[in-house]
């Protein structure tokens, strides 16, 4: 087993890794035990009692975090010329169609979200092999295939994120930065948890929320006491 560094030992001494904490307390601990020089992301990991291999147990949704993610989101809009001004006014970083499709086919994926319109999906669909594995493929369910281009861009910029359960039954998402207050992290985490609670598949049996952990990019995970969250 690898030896702990001084910083890791100091972090481990500040909390009990086996204990479960109330959400706001856990948020404060994550801030306290993160020792990076940069403003690290704070992540939530929610282990669900579902079998993601079954189509009727796939948990996927979108959530708008009240305090955003703290991350500058780079948005590409693939649209027809009549929608370009709307996209730019809403704050899109890149706007166009064929030129960007060619760039992506050449391997360019220096973006966080792609928004497009239903009429463009014929062209955009060809990019599935590049975009699919990176989680960048636009999807009507997540609101990234729409005629309301400006609204979609503004929502993404304001902290709307798309999430889904992975093949091991875990939803993993960034819910803020270490520079956020514990209250902001708590409110963002709660919004995420409440949204997941509403998406419980009717076919899922037994305990739906198996475990919830908060961590930062460089910190160990802090366990959340589910009994302190009213919605679950």
Model description:
It is a single chain. With 232 residues, the chain is an alpha/beta fold. Helices cover 29% and strands 22% of the residues. The strands form 3 sheets. A 5-stranded mixed β-sheet has the order 1-10-9-2-8, covered by helices on one side. A 3-stranded parallel β-sheet has the order 5-4-6, with helices on both faces. Strands 3-7 form a two-stranded antiparallel ribbon. β4, α3 (84-90) and β5 form a beta-alpha-beta unit. α2 (23-33) crosses α8 (182-198) and α3 packs parallel to α7 (149-157). The longest helix is centred in the last third of the chain and has 17 residues, at 182-198. The protein starts with 5 loop residues before the first helix and ends in an 8-residue tail after the last strand.
Spatial order of the strands in the main sheet?
Answer: 1-10-9-2-8
Number of strands: 10
Structural class: alpha/beta
What's the overall average pLDDT, rounded? 92
Summarize the structure.
This protein is of the alpha/beta class and 232 residues long.
Write the layout of secondary structure elements.
Blueprint: H1 6-12, E1 20-21, H2 23-33, E2 41-48, E3 60-64, E4 75-78, H3 84-90, E5 94-96, H4 98-105, E6 113-116, H5 121-124, H6 128-131, H7 149-157, E7 160-164, E8 170-177, H8 182-198, E9 209-216, E10 222-224
Parallel strand pairs: 1-10, 4-5, 4-6
Antiparallel strand pairs: 2-8, 2-9, 3-7, 9-10
Helix pairs in contact: 2-8, 3-7
